[in-house]
């Protein structure tokens, strides 16, 4: 198991408003895929807007360990010398993917097609997360992957004789599973086809097309055939809507806020958070909609507005799956109850996000009832304040950032423990927050679990 990061707590002063322009770091999902496809392409790919967070850097380090040359990243700029689909080399050691589920699940598929064996390890959280969801269909394709008896990391991906395409209907709506199978499909004989029970993020499909790889989409199904090639290209990665989400919520709940988040990725498979917040009464305008490297982007202007609780439509859940910690804070500051259903996946993210949010919100005086597949949050009221207090992020980056926003509506400071993993997706979060009106004091070496 990989080392745990040094402990870090946030102390966030109560009250305030969010104002100004802010560009949050590059999209995490797209950054992972950019490195993977650039490494497997023929030629040099220049990437800008790359997320220099621990998760995407873990993916980059994995490819460097497999012989891929890359220059950077420096201020989001990265140049990757592609080695072609068959040019990776056996790494000398296990690939340590830290906290990153996306790295581990996507790499499982990609590595299943290599002629060498690899060991994949991660931190305590990643080592608890279910990997059977990729191992099972990849095994059907002919992959040989060893895991713990519970289907968890460490994983050993052994060379397969030959992968064969399958027609797979995913039991869970997961972009990671879909992407893992598509990456294995690049190495498979015949056609690999994946069907999803609900729409999930389609960055892999878009990026494969950007690298010139033929791919077919038919309704809920995406298909590709092995044996093609990826051609290097230039990629500009938009700001991550999942990181912008904290500020969308913060500016909505803090009276007097007027914030513009620039160049945010607005892929229709990711904008559940905007749809849900608007359903709650949020004032979010999309300005300067445009396209950037095959992905829609825009600036998001958000002004504070009284929020009301809603029953979150289940079809929005996969489109906002990473935004529930932030949405729970919005619900806590709304008039009336908010109901989340059909979101059992939240229990197997970087933490059990249903339980961890319920525990923290209860500390802040909010009435929350966790359920197996969601929760009911009794909003304190659109003009009411939350209590301050000490909450635990359990090493989950998105929990930490969500509770930082809650301080905007608290009567006294909120201390958040175990925040070091904010670095996985949003390096510089405390400075970015301070720059728009939410000062966060970081305490290193505090008494984290
Ligand atoms: C991701 C897909 C989602 C998401 C994760 C990133 C991706 O996971 O929660 O943060 O980049 O494909 P699932 O596919 O497991 O829902």
Automatic annotation (TrEMBL):
Enolpyruvate transferase domain boundaries: 13-430
GO cellular component, one term: cytoplasm
Single GO MF descriptor: 3-phosphoshikimate 1-carboxyvinyltransferase activity
Enzyme class: transferase
Annotated catalysed reactions: 3-phosphoshikimate + phosphoenolpyruvate = 5-O-(1-carboxyvinyl)-3-phosphoshikimate + phosphate
Subcellular location(s) per record: Cytoplasm
Name the UniProt record assigns to this protein: 3-phosphoshikimate 1-carboxyvinyltransferase
Family membership noted in the UniProt record: Belongs to the EPSP synthase family.
Active-site residue list: 322
Classification via NCBIfam families: aroA
Pfam families with a match to the protein in the record: EPSP_synthase
An individual GO BP term: aromatic amino acid family biosynthetic process
Major site of localization recorded for this protein: cytoplasm
Subunit architecture: Monomer.
Gene: aroA
InterPro entries to which the protein is assigned, alphabetical: Enolpyruvate_Tfrase_dom (IPR001986), Enolpyruvate_Tfrase_sf (IPR036968), EPSP_synthase (IPR006264), EPSP_synthase_CS (IPR023193), RNA3'P_cycl/enolpyr_Trfase_a/b (IPR013792)
CDD domains, A to Z: EPSP_synthase
E.C. number(s) listed in UniProt: 2.5.1.19
Residues holding phosphoenolpyruvate: 28, 101, 129, 176, 353, 398
SUPFAM superfamilies: EPT/RTPC-like
Pathway(s) of this molecule: Metabolic intermediate biosynthesis; chorismate biosynthesis; chorismate from D-erythrose 4-phosphate and phosphoenolpyruvate: step 6/7
Function: Catalyzes the transfer of the enolpyruvyl moiety of phosphoenolpyruvate (PEP) to the 5-hydroxyl of shikimate-3-phosphate (S3P) to produce enolpyruvyl shikimate-3-phosphate and inorganic phosphate.
Keywords: Amino-acid biosynthesis, Aromatic amino acid biosynthesis, Cytoplasm, Transferase
Binding, 3-phosphoshikimate: 28-29, 33, 174, 176, 322, 349
Gene3D superfamilies from the UniProt entry: Enolpyruvate transferase domain (3.65.10.10)
């Amino acid at each position: 198991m990989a080392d745990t990061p040094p402990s870090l707590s946030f102390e966030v002063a109560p009250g305030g408003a969010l104002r100004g322009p802010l560009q949050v770091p590059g999209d995490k999902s797209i950054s992972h895929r950019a490195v993977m496809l650039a490494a497997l392409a023929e030629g040099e790919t220049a990437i800008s807007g790359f997320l220099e967070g621990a998760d995407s850097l873990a993916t980059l380090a994995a490819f460097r360990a497999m012989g891929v040359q890359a220059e950077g990243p420096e201020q989001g700029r990265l140049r990757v010398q592609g080695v072609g689909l068959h040019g990776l080399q056996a790494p000398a050691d296990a690939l340590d993917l830290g906290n990153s589920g996306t790295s581990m699940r996507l790499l499982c598929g990609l590595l299943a097609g290599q002629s060498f064996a690899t060991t994949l390890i991660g931190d305590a959280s990643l080592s608890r997360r279910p990997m059977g969801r990729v191992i099972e269909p990849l095994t059907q394709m002919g992959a040989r992957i060893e895991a713990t008896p519970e289907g968890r990391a460490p994983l050993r991906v052994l060379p397969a004789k030959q992968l064969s395409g399958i027609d797979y209907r995913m039991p869970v709506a997961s972009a990671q599973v879909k992407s893992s199978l598509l990456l294995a499909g690049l190495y498979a004989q015949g056609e690999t086809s994946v069907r999803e029970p609900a729409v999930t993020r389609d960055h892999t499909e878009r990026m494969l097309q950007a690298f010139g790889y033929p791919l077919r989409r038919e309704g809920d199904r995406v298909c590709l055939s092995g044996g093609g090639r990826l051609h290097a290209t230039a990629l500009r990665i938009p700001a991550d809507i999942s990181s912008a989400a904290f500020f969308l919520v913060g500016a909505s709940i803090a009276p007097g806020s007027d914030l513009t988040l620039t160049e945010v990725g607005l892929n229709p498979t990711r904008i559940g958070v905007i749809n849900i917040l608007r359903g709650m009464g949020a004032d979010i305008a999309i300005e300067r909609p445009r396209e950037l490297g095959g992905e829609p982007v825009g600036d998001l202007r958000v002004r504070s507005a009284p929020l009301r609780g809603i029953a979150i439509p289940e079809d929005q859940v996969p489109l906002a799956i990473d935004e529930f910690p932030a949405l729970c804070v919005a619900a806590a500051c709304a008039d009336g109850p908010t109901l989340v259903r059909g979101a059992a996946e939240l229990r197997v993210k970087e933490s059990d996000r249903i339980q961890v949010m319920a525990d923290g919100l209860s500390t802040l005086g909010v009435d929350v009832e966790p359920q197996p597949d969601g929760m009911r949050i009794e909003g304190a009221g659109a003009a009411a304040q939350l209590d301050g207090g000490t909450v635990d992020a359990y090493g989950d980056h998105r929990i930490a950032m969500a509770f930082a926003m809650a301080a905007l509506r608290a009567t006294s400071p909120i201390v958040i423990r175990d925040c070091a993993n904010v670095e996985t997706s949003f390096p510089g979060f405390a400075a970015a927050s301070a720059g728009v009106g939410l000062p966060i004091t970081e305490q290193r070496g505090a008494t984290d679990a």
